[in-house]
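Protocol step 6 of 9: fold each sequence in the batch and record its structure tokens directly after the sequence line. For illustration, a two-sequence batch is reproduced in full.

Sequence one:
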Amino acid sequence: MLLPDPDPNNDGTAEYQVWLELAGKPGGGSNLTTCQVDAVGTEVCSTQNTITLTGNRDPGKPKWTNVTKQLLTICLDTTGDGICDTRAFLFDNAAVNYMWQYDNFGNRLMKLRFYPISQPIGLTP
């Protein structure tokens, strides 16, 4: 599945929302981080957008969480000090490739839903 540029107008507003739910057995969790591959082939992951999901799954009651900002933007350290200096939207033409890095620890099922509802994100870190 190809996702369109969430901010085609470059105004800091995502044109769609992303919602996440952990399903399956209660307990466990996962980490999810946005990453990109730049024009020279270097993979860089966000300094700020990691989603850590633990205890999000209560027995019989899956919980949906709005993760639009975390999964549609990447926060980059452009000065090497470990702090986010630039926030960019994923799936535009700024890099060669984008991905979500998923680390599963005890949770085997994660659901994502995409809704055509705009959401202001901003372009500042």
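Sequence two, same batch, same settings:
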Amino acid sequence: MSTELDRFAIFGGAPAFAEARHVGRPNVGDRRALHARIDGLLDRRWLSNDGPLVREFEQAICDLTGTAHCVAVCNATVALEILIRALGLAGEVIVPSFTFVATAHALQWLGLTPVFCDVDPITHNIDPAQVERLITPRTAAVLGVHVWGRPCDVDRLSAIAHDHAIPLLFDAAHAFGCSYRGGSVGTFGAAEVFSFHATKVLNTFEGGAVVTNNGALADRLRLMRNFGFAGYDRVVEVGTNGKMPEVCAAMGLTGLESFETFVAVNRRNYREYASRLACIPGVRLVTYDETERCNFQYVVAEIDADVTHIGRDPLVDVLFAENILARRYFHPGCHRMEPYRSLPRYADADLPETERLSDRVLCLPNGTDVTSEDAGRIADVLRGAVAHGAEISARLAAR
């Protein structure tokens, strides 16, 4: 005898979508414009090494963010690494554990020690009060992360960094096109790092950038992304190969032309989700301050299993079966990933909010590949799964 649960694909029903809906499927702008740029770079036979498209892209980023300098590189991890090297950091850097592991790895890779800080339970960003508590004579810098594109408490972090005479940096991978108290992300701290990975609201296929108002720092970053070359054959310091290729800049420039459209689609979908998911006990949607500029890329729900009677992870399984590829960000927290969890200094890490969030956060599909109708259907599937949370949990446990 069939039951209400049999309509769910995980129990044999037809999936809600014939093709998968993704978190962060790449946005693509005007293909003809992209092809024209690619034809131009092929005609010039200038494929890399600080080409004209890279310079145009860097200037466009400066114009959009109001930042004096943009140094485009091959990816955001390399951007973090050369920024850390360019600042000459050594010792410990305070960083949230609730972030993509590359933020911590960039520090560890260069021989610095990540000091994992807990986050604010409402904003999901690094908690300034905890930052203050963690500062010691070994602290070289504070590295904040603008999670979901919602900026950190820049004012409080800036005051802390100033009082302790240490640099303040930001991983702004989620926050391109966003603002804090009317000021553009990219203009804060000593420098900020953007990601233009394929999954981001603006992508360059793969890429990243450091943006800063410090001209001397920008000059050093440019040296370091190109093996330390200062001129045709003169090397003045150790560097690496972090250059952005011309074809990536072509994609970035094309995406910038459609950027407001990308944001408008994200906003439309976010509002559809917010409407459909309102007033569901145990489900809290992360909200955006629409008086600020937001890119609305991440649609994030917190799942309280004590109320929904189904945990976040079983919900992910239910949604995956429906071809809704929701994601667990940033499970289980960097301090519970290798190599950190095996290092004695992290054995007693006290990060209750990070661990709570990493067990509750659920990111839902968004982007130009997701229609408002898709968003509504995804929300309805989630609503239905929560409505039958106890029964679904019991049936999954019985398998």
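Proceed to step 7 once all outputs are recorded. Observation for sequence two: The two ends are 18 Å apart (CA to CA).
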